[in-house]
Amino acid sequence: MISRRLLRIKAVKALYAHLKSESDSLMASEKTLVASIDKTYDLYVQMLSLIVEVAHYAEQRQEIAKQKKMPTFEDLNPNRKFVDNAVVRLIENGDAVNDYTESHKLSWSNYPELIKTLYLQLEQSEYYQRYMSSEERSFKEDLALVTEFYTRELEESEMLEEVLDEQSILWNDDLGFALTLVVRTLSNLRASHTDVKLLPKFKSEEDLEFVKELFAKAAVNYNANVELIEKFTRNWDVERIAFMDIVIMATAIAELTSFASIPVKVTLDEYIEIAKYYSTASSGTFINGVLDKVVSTLNQEGKIVKSGRGLI
Hints:
By secondary structure, the chain is mostly helical.
């Protein structure tokens, strides 16, 4: 499931791109926003299929070794533990991942060097070597290996990052989120399962409407929100404030004033964390200070109205 944190990030990025492009079409920018969310889900499913390609490559190496003029005993009797990994086979033989990748035209077929590199990297790891030398044969052990592959080998892979950039410009910064979804999916697997159950795209039907409304409110009220921000940054050279900081704060104000069911603290915490990652090193502290003053002013003016259990 795509989290509200990621949806907020998508809204911030969409607003940033919309403003930089000087586009007059909110509808076109919203369409790009929704496409970006869809592509994140595509990336999740495609990453789930990656381990299958790595296992296929391992099997191909074993078959090639058997064809040597003078094969060794090991060449003729390879250790197939990884190739026959039950979790890999479950992903490979189930309909969920295959149907999705086929219908959305997702594939690793044009990137054999990436698959080779990831396999060699995996083969050299201590956890893989322990797995291959262990006499145990269990779904639990197979699952642990696949989970470690996704948590250890991919997020820092420069080659994988380059491949993803080549496949879609909408995948910038989405790998970590996609891998989180993959690991969550793996944790739900059981030996009795006959297919992989993909996570739903959204936790709630309201999530898509939330991000579309958030983007629209932030875009329509951008100038007014910037004027409010400037009241509390008068001692700063406005031109030296990172543009991303302004976009993040303007989006946060849109959420504070437009979504009665979201607590103020949740909104503030979310955008401060987003600023730490997507703007400058000092942005989190700076934005926290400005937004605290903004909230105080908006409360006094009655522009922040919260409703629901536990909301003030």
